[in-house]
Amino acid sequence: xxxxxxxxxxxxxxxxxxxxxxxxxxxxxxxxxxxxxxxxxxxxxxxxxxxxxxxxxxxxxxxxxxxxxxxxxxxxxxxxxxxxxxxxxxxxxxxxxxxxxxxxxxxxxxxxxxxxxxxxxxxxxxxxxxxxxxxxxxxxxxxxxxxxxxxxxxxxxxxxxxxxxxxxxxxxxxxxxxxxxxxxxxxxxxxxxxxxxxxxxxxxxxxxxxxxxxxxxxxxxxxxxxxxxxxxxxxxxxxxxxxxxxxxxxxxxxxxxxxxxxxxxxxxxxxxxxxxxxxxxxxxxxxxxxxxxxxxxxxxxxxxxxxxxxxxxxxxxxxxxxxxxxxxxxxxxxxxxxxxxxxxxxxxxxxxxxxxxxxxxxxxxxxxxxxxxxxxxxxxxxxxxxxxxxxxxxxxxxxxxxxxxxxxxxxxxxxxxxxxxxxxxxxxxx
RNA sequence: GCGAGCGUAGCCAAGUGGUUAAGGCAGUGGAUUGUGAUUCCGCCAUGCGUGGGUUCGAGCCCCAUCGUUCGCCCCA
Length: 430
Prior knowledge:
The chain has helices at 15-34, 48-55, 60-64, 84-93, 138-154, 170-184, 193-201, 212-219, 230-245, 290-293, 308-318, 335-350, 364-374, 384-389, 410-429; strands spanning 38-39, 45-47, 67-70, 76-79, 103-112, 124-133, 160-166, 251-252, 264-272, 280-286, 301-307, 328-332, 355-357, 378-382, 391-396, 402-406. By secondary structure, the chain is an alpha+beta fold. The chain has two domains: 15-168 and 228-318, Bira Bifunctional Protein, Domain 2 (BirA Bifunctional Protein, domain 2, 2-Layer Sandwich), CATH 3.30.930; 328-422, Anticodon-binding domain (Rossmann fold, 3-Layer(aba) Sandwich). The strands form three sheets. Strands 1-5-6-11-10-9-7-8 form an eight-stranded mixed β-sheet. Strands 13-12-14-15-16 form a five-stranded mixed β-sheet, sandwiched between helices. Strands 2-4-3 form a three-stranded antiparallel β-sheet. The longest helix is centred in the N-terminal third of the chain and has 20 residues, at 15-34. It starts with 14 loop residues before the first helix and ends with a helix. The structure holds one RNA strand.
């Protein structure tokens, strides 16, 4: 083992694993593209102040988890701990809100939080982010949630749960907060230490404590749903109705609270039971106040973030194998054959085949063995005899059938070969 | 930031103070100097995450450190 290793909480995504990532990205690109969402890419670091103002200085993410440093020009810089703030900054800076009534955006990339790593939690991890800015319509909430469930379903994931809540407007929340403090204060001594601290700082967060005694006390705590204004209530009912219209199953969880200050009204999480303590795959909500908070015009918005690592963990459990294979494996030995093999390989690649060329010059037996393990449908063999008369042996590995064909005939035979390759691939699956 | 467990080859591992560190997979060379199953034979850790310590003797015990896993916390 070498001296230098990847930093704590960071990981290499190796070739064997990268297929899962590509698949998620391809499906996301497809689904989001069909829903008229456009990709945006924003910088990985921003002014520290953006996150302090956007996410809230009292939150753990800003308070103790940011990678913040001073650059050579004495600016305070922070590696983004989430995507939304940077995206909103970009929207405002480029006045994207002026070019249309609604902006539908998505992006994917690394985010950074200084936390203790464990399964499903890293210091550098990746999020897929989807946002709709400029609409307060309940259909926007439903659309965005539907995109998340569609994506997960298309990837083949089952037994996920969707929790839904409304955290109302800041005014609703102020009343509720006061009610919670009234309720919890008499129990103050019985609460766990963390919750005692949260009592004054952020009593909403007590609601999802995992501490046993605290959970018992929480049982009878007032529900936020009783503190929503009638407008907020109506809004929440509309969102639920739209989800029902779309056939999306959800459960209302009045104790669902989210860690970032900017959320209003709709809040939701999609969780899996297969991820241990870090169960949330996708989480998000509405943030009607964020754009003005960051200096833009009144712009209601909703979005979510999805943890790529967590999603990939689930996919790996679902389909442990997942190797890309090659159509042809080219084998050769001797100066002239090896030179011709390179040309044949190139020809086949240009015809659209995936081709691996064996570079070893080792015995044909060894090369054939590698051909077998490569998963190729057929092996192309070039020795002195073939080089002499300009042919190549094509051996179909499943059947063992072998025939010689002229190298110059390859383009004409392409369609035929393609048919046989697909047939061979289908046979493997069956 | 707190608590607990774990770290032996590319991978999975046996080994719980006594001399040359099992085994399997993968890799590689050969039996088979032009053909992939199987089989057989050879090779593949002066080294047990790293650094100290205890001991006649340490993969094994102790301390520190790094990494990782599971909780707490937090969240995607």
